[in-house]
Specification:
Order of helices and strands: HHHHHH
Shape: globular
Strand content: under 5%
Helix content: 40-55%
Distance between the termini: 25 Å
Number of helices: 6
Largest sheet: none
Radius of gyration: 17 Å
């Protein structure tokens, strides 16, 4: 079985720091715990404008707090046989960001 995922995936906090450095901006990223999650979800749901401002839904709060581990050893081994490696996110994110900035007509919704 092959799993397609980043073999060196960043944590959410690491990804935010990379985005901050790339954009030269600072983001507010509150620490979420299992105790604060219900409060954050309620705030996103019921505080007028907060969901729109943060661009979060209550369901995304759950998703962002879900600890994950990805196994892609079979995939990386098979790719290596062909001389291929999965690039680290840090290496292609600036290029991806420049593309997004240069092409605002490309929608941000996922492919359907």
């Amino acid at each position: 079985m092959y799993q397609l995922c980043d073999p060196h995936a960043l944590t959410l906090n690491q990804m935010l720091r990379l985005i901050e450095r790339t954009l030269n901006k600072r983001f507010i990223a509150p620490k979420l715990s299992r105790w604060s999650r219900p409060l954050v979800k309620a705030a996103v749901r019921y505080v007028p404008g907060l969901g729109r401002f943060t661009q979060l839904t209550p369901q995304q709060v759950d998703y962002l707090m879900l600890p994950t581990r990805h196994f892609c050893q079979h995939t990386t081994e098979r790719l290596a046989q062909g001389g291929l490696v999965c690039p680290r996110f840090e290496t292609y994110f600036p290029v991806l960001l420049r593309f997004m900035q240069a092409h605002p007509e490309v929608p941000s919704e996922g492919m359907r």
